[in-house]
Amino acid sequence: MLQKIDIDWDIHRMIEGERRGFDEPPYVALRRLLKLPALEATAAIGAEGLSWHEDGVSVPHGSLARMCYQRGRQVFEGRFLDGRLVVNDKSFDSLSAAANALAETKDGKKTQLNGWNYWEARFPGEQVWRSLKQMREEYRAKG
Known about the structure:
It is a single chain. This protein is an alpha+beta fold. The protein has four helices and eight strands; from the N terminus they run H-H-E-E-E-E-E-E-H-E-E-H. The chain has helices spanning 9-18, 26-33, 95-102, 132-142, and strands at 52-54, 57-59, 64-69, 74-81, 84-87, 90-92, 119-122, 130-131. A six-stranded antiparallel β-sheet has the order 6-5-4-3-7-8. A two-stranded antiparallel ribbon has the order 1-2. A hairpin with a 2-residue loop joins strand 5 and strand 6. Helix 1 (9-18) crosses helix 2. The longest helix is centred in the last third of the chain and has 11 residues, at 132-142. The relative contact order is 0.15. Mean pLDDT is 86; it is low at 41-46.
């Protein structure tokens, strides 16, 4: 569960200095500074936080994320946290941005993937993986 805390200027500077980009949430950098495991490895994530929304699809905060590429040769796992997709301590605005930053062709080159075709989500408290592409298609069908 994410909680708000007061910090002094020196701590703020340390966190900002550790961040790997403006897209990375400060708590990810703080977890690294404290040598805590990445959120993907922690057992419990609280329900408080912003849901991720895109193209009529909403995924609750704390949901697991998974992408399989090249018939399972490349598998990426992360979480939807505070309105963003976080994988390997990197934060992404869109499914495609994440897919293209992470996946590589057989030749080791960057991809140009439509992330909707690859990402799945598992909502907190559920055991079933949901295709985000299918969720978007269902939303559009209700249109």
